[in-house]
Each structure stands twice: as C-alpha cells, then as structure tokens.
Design a protein that fits this description.
This protein is mainly alpha-helical. It has 6 helices and 4 strands, in the order αααββαββαα. The strands form 2 sheets. The chain has a two-stranded antiparallel sheet with strand order 1-2. Bound molecules: zinc ion (2 copies).
Length: 203
C-alpha cells in the first residue's frame, strides 16, 4: 500500500496533468488498461482524502480514536484502502474507499485487526459504524478444511492407539476404517486448491 504524497492531491489533476508527472519510459510501458486503472485509482484517492478530511477514519471501539495516528489531520502516512478488495473485484470508486493510516491498514491486511469506523455523516452509509474483517480468499477458505481433516486424523490415531493398548481390537479396526476414509477425503481435495497463489494486497 502506497502512502500518499499530499502535493498530488491538493487540486484534482486532469488526466493529462496526472500523466505529465510520470516518468516517460514508465508511461510508455503501460497498456491503455493500466493507464485507465492508474488514473481511476488517483481519482478515488483524491475523492476519499477530501471526503475524509485528510485523516485516518479508523476508530478503535474501546478507545474511540485511532491508537496509531490519533486521526490526526494530514498524518504523514495516509493510504486509501479498498473496502471491497481488488482481488475480489472491488472498484476504484470513492464509495469503496476509506482513508487509513499505513500501520492500521497493514495490520488489517495481515488479518491482525478488524476495521471499525465511526458513525460519521461524510462516510458512505455502508461504512458508517461498520466493522470489516479482512475478506478471505478462496484458498484461505479452504485452509480450515485441511486443518480440520488433519486434526480429525490425529484424534483418530490417538484413540486407535489407546484401543490397541486396551486390547479393544474391534474398536481399533473401526478406527482403521475411519482413518482410511479420512485419508481418502484428504486425497480428493483438488490439486488447484493446494496451489499457493500470490494475491495482490490492497494498495
Ligand atoms: Zn486495504
Ligand atoms: Zn490511524
């Protein structure tokens, strides 16, 4: 996530003016879609910063302010966060954006903190007073299933061990069957769900 250089956001830049500040080689290397995306993102940041009065909107529910930046006006490390993440097809629209200081933003993206926002008129209604947990990716949603299976296998193995120690062979055989069934369900999880994929962070 990029922290914001306020100089670019005092006045709304036209597309021409926005790209005039780009490195020429960098600009040439961009596809028309990438240019579209960059300018839409700029406009979103511009609108969000002005709407949010150049201050982080996170409010810790018990403290009533942001413990990092104290919602300070023009805190030096401000970012604009996408409420609906880009990886989940969120748009560069002001109503999908909210100003956050960089450390709070980073903690949210690492799933270390839920975002809570004040009931403040300037914020879009779906953000006012709301709490957001970081959205999970398809891969992350799969993870608990794997962990659950592993735990079930570990538990079944333990019970089987104690059944054998107690010479309860019928019970041990039942558990053998259970372990095999679990192993099969383990092996039938499609390969694509195991593949690690890089997901872009909200920037
Ligand atoms: Zn974000
Ligand atoms: Zn903050």
């Amino acid at each position: 996530m990029t922290t914001i250089d306020f100089a670019n956001y005092e006045e709304k830049k036209t597309r021409e003016k926005y790209f005039a500040d780009f490195d020429r080689a960098q600009y040439k290397a961009m596809s028309p879609d990438q240019r579209e995306d960059a300018y839409a993102r700029y406009l979103m940041r511009y609108e969000c910063l002005h709407r949010d009065n150049f201050s982080c909107q996170y409010v810790d529910p018990t403290l009533g302010y942001c413990p990092n930046c104290h919602n300070e006006y023009r805190h030096p490390f401000l970012t604009v966060h996408h409420i609906k993440a880009l990886r989940n097809k969120g748009h560069h629209k002001p109503r999908n954006g909210v100003t956050l200081c960089q450390p709070i933003h980073a903690r949210y993206e690492k799933k270390a903190l839920a975002l809570t926002f004040p009931v403040a008129e300037h914020l879009p209604p779906h953000i006012q007073g709301a709490t957001f947990l970081r959205e999970k990716t398809a891969k992350e949603l799969q993870k608990p299933k794997w962990q659950r299976l592993k735990e079930q296998r570990r538990a079944a193995r333990e019970i089987r061990k104690s059944a054998l120690q107690n010479r309860d062979f019928v019970r041990a055989r039942d558990l053998d069957a259970r372990l095999i069934a679990l192993l099969i369900s383990f092996l039938t999880v499609p390969y694509y769900e195991l593949k690690a994929h890089n997901m872009p962070l909200c920037v």
